Amino acid sequence: MDGTTGKNEMGQDENQTLTNRQGHPITDNQSMRTVGNRGPTVLENYDFLEKITHFDRERTPERVVHARGAGAHGYFEAYGTVGNEPVSTYTRAKLFQEKGKRTPVFVRFSTVNHGNHSPETLRDPRGFAVKFYTEDGNWDLVGNNLKVFFIRDAMKFPDLVHAFRPDPVTNIQDVGRIFDFISNTPEAMLMITFLFSPWGIPANYRQMQGSGVNTYKWVNQEGQAVLVKYHWEPLKQGIKNLTQKQAEEIQGKNFNHATQDLYEAIERGDYPEWELCVQIMSDDDHPELDFDPLDPTKLWPEEQFPFLPVGKMVLNKNPENYFAEVEQAAFGTGVLVDGLDFSDDKLLQGRTFSYSDTQRYRVGANYLQLPINAPKKRVATNQEGGQMLYRVDRSHPHINYEPSTVGGLHEAEQEGKDHQPYVQGKIVRQKIDRTNDFKQAGERYRLMEDWEKDDLIANLTNAMQSCDPRVQEKMLNYFFKCDSEYGNRIKQGIEAAGNRSRKGIGGPMGATNPGQAVRQAAEEGHPADPY
Question: Where are the stretches annotated Disordered (predicted)?
Answer without folding.
Answer: 1-39, 497-531
